[in-house]
Amino acid sequence: MTLQFPTIADCVGNTPLVRLQRLAGETSNTLLVKLEGNNPAGSVKDRPALSMITRAELRGDIQPGDTLIEATSGNTGIALAMAAAIKGYKMILIMPDNSTAERKWAMTAYGAELILVSKEEGMEGARDLAEKLQAEGRGKVLDQFANGDNPQAHYTGTGPEIWRQTGGTITHFISSMGTTGTIMGTSRYLKEQNPAIQIVGLQPQEGSAIPGIRRWPEEYLPKIYQAERVDQVMDMGQAEAEHVMRRLAREEGIFCGVSSGGSVAGMLRLSQQVENAVMVAIICDRGDRYLSTGVYEDPAH
């Protein structure tokens, strides 16, 4: 008998869906979270990263040895650095210099070249620089913001997994919105199964800085975003997201980042408004890549 062993790429997806035990409180609702930090490079972005490279290969757009370029605030960059290492590509990542040290170290650990832009230039500046480098012939921009292979990873993976794991009983899906790939692809699949499922997107309220999610200026709104796929957009404050993030670790044993805390905070708000619902929120990454920011040190919890 010949044993067939998986590669690291085979371990992307099929993440656990678990029930909140304490944060939910007394309720008739079932509150579930999908643990995307269990992906090999530690976040939900492993899915689109592998999808964008694999599908570009299949089309003949790229071949091993090519240089790939991407603007990132962190998780996508780490995931792409991993996927490039798996597939044999050189990777140039461009990100704002206020991203956490853990993220920068993880990208370079996978062999990626890292270019930093200022905090003031932000993700918009990083995206502009990526396009400039491509125009200069330095490599090919994958462009997670406009690349249909990003949401497609969630249409073929995240959505079907949630539908299967809930036995088709899901009533609400809650996700923070950055590039919006997760919510676009998952919404498309879930709505095809049951149009009544409510899709709720989280964005930071004015003045809040939540890593990985954005209120995009109109001219930088991701091209993959389709407003009609989101039933409700909820504004989330930084303090509320951080508070729930710390509670998840201390009361549920779920160690995650700030945007995940925001998603669960949104789910807790919604749970006050409905009964007998089955809600799923995305825990998009692990908390260890935020420790250097001190976000877990708040004595007030």
From TrEMBL:
Q: Which residues form the Tryptophan synthase beta chain-like PALP domain?
A: 9-285
Listed InterPro entries: Cys_synth, Cys_Synth/Cystath_Beta-Synth, CysM, P-phosphate_BS, TrpB-like_PALP, TrpB-like_PALP_sf
Stated EC number for the protein is 2.5.1.47
GO MF entry, a single one: cysteine synthase activity
Gene3D superfamilies recorded: 3.40.50.1100
Q: Quote the record's binding site residues for pyridoxal 5'-phosphate.
A: 75, 178-182, 259
Origin: domain of life: Bacteria
Respond yes or no to whether keyword Cell membrane is given for this record.
no
Q: Which GO terms describe its biological process?
A: cysteine biosynthetic process from serine
Q: Residue positions of the PTM N6-(pyridoxal phosphate)lysine? A: 45
State the reactions this protein catalyses.
Answer: O-acetyl-L-serine + hydrogen sulfide = L-cysteine + acetate
What keywords tag this UniProt record?
Amino-acid biosynthesis, Cysteine biosynthesis, Pyridoxal phosphate, Transferase
Pfam families per UniProt: PALP
**What cofactors are annotated for this protein?**
pyridoxal 5'-phosphate
Key word Glycosyltransferase present: no
Pathway given in the UniProt record: Amino-acid biosynthesis; L-cysteine biosynthesis; L-cysteine from L-serine: step 2/2
Q: Family per UniProt?
A: Belongs to the cysteine synthase/cystathionine beta-synthase family.
* Protein name in the entry: Cysteine synthase
Task: Give the species.
Answer: Pseudomonas berkeleyensis
